[in-house]
Amino acid sequence: MRDLKDYLAEYDGPPLNITAGAHLAGVVDPEDNPWHRLTELAKHCVICVCGAPLPRMQQWTFTLKDNSQVDYTISQCARCGKVYWTQP
What 3-state class would DSSP assign to 82? Predict the structure, then answer.
């Protein structure tokens, strides 16, 4: 099995309003942990770059100030705190 570091794209965090609001989706310290956007292939990986099991990606819908909505799929490593995300 390949691990996640084989699939990571260059760091590309979501907009700050999504990062700041991610605590509502259960992300621990979202503004203090690194965010990594996943490539299409990496969505099915189950191992973080630190070697810990990565929880299943979960889809969240964020409502913006203009009432538009945007979906993100997010997972966070319980060991190192890295946050992995993508937009479906």
Answer: coil
Six-digit token string for 83: 């946050």
Q: Which of 44-83 are b and which e, b meaning 16 or more Cβ less than 10 Å from the residue's Cβ?
A: ebebbbeeeebeebeebebeeeeeeeeebbbbbbeeebbb
Structural domain boundaries in the chain: 4-86
What does the pLDDT look like over 9-64, one tens digit per residue? 454 789 888 998 999 999 999 988 889 888 765 666 678 889 998 888 899 999 99
| pTM for the structure as a whole | 0.79
